[in-house]
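# step 3/5: fold
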Amino acid sequence: MPGNVAGALDYQLSSLGIPAFMIELGAGSRAEPQHIAQGVSGFTGLAQRLGMLPGRADAPAQLCRVTRRSHVVFAHGGLFRATRQPGDSVRAGEPLGSVMDVWGKTVETLTLPYDHIVIAIRRDPVVHSGDRFAFVAQAWEQVMVQF
């Protein structure tokens, strides 16, 4: 995982061999009811399947397991327009969005040299060089869910 995770409780517990979970409930400093409901439903179902909570939840037949991921950053500052959404599969060289200057001239078209899946993408338009614009899966596999 890129970035500073020293204070992340799930990483600290995992390093001690204690199972831990982190739920992403939104992005871009926004609380979106559908994302919160999906996170709560998913975690509740997982806790039920693991016997941590009463009840029984159905599980999907398979999941996409990400085995390598990274943040990607802007080379230029300006105004960002995303052309992709979380969950999109993107081929190498296809744009994820662009950065414009204040006059509307494109100063950067954001592409990656490898196929990837968008995990998260910036929605705030004002950006600085070096800011993160996306969190992407670089390698993944479909795995069967077994309980």
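# step 4/5: annotate
The chain has two helices and eight strands.
# step 5/5: archive (pending)
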